[in-house]
Amino acid sequence: MGKLIKNHWARLIVLTAALYQIAAALEGFFWPKIFWDFLTTNLDPAVRPVPILQVINLLLGILAFAWEWPLPLLSFAKTAMHRSIEARLAVYPLASLSALLLYQGTNPGIYYLIGMGVYFWAYSEGEVVCPEPWALPRRRRGGGKV
Fold it and tell me: Which helix (H) or strand (E) holds 11?
């Protein structure tokens, strides 16, 4: 059996979270609701009458989806930003927070948290994201870690 490539697993989790976040943002346009409205109504202006939180969630969901599944047309796949686990660990907490504020986005927020945990695990073990999406890292000649 091979080793688990944790950044690929985290990529699948974050792809799922991004799709759910896009769907939650679109649903939030029709049924705007803050998740924490049972505690306070101070956050209601973020969703109604102007859908600020829904637009933020839509943009962050599209960004996360494009980041994790880069299209060859945009040639984003070979950039340092795409290969950076650190940048993901800096941006995804914001996506998670915005998703957790929206009532329809609680599941994507939790998925982002799990994905960030797996990315941190991969980062702490020294994994790297390959320049080509879904490629396997090259083995070192000395029999070192993958």
Answer: helix 6-30
Which helix (H) or strand (E) element contains residue 21?
helix 6-30
Residue 76 has pLDDT above 90, yes or no: no
3 state DSSP class of 107: helix
Structure tokens at 29: 């346009």
CA distance 99 to 93: 10
Share of the chain above pLDDT 70, in %: 88
> pLDDT tens-digit profile of 108-133?
999 999 999 999 999 999 988 887 77
**Overall pTM surpassing 0.85 (yes/no):** yes
Cis (ω within 30 of 0) for the bond into 93? Answer: no
> How is residue 39 written in tokens?
């505690």
Cα angle vertex 96, ends 95, 98, to 5°? Answer: 65
The Cα–Cα gap between 42 and 30 comes to 20
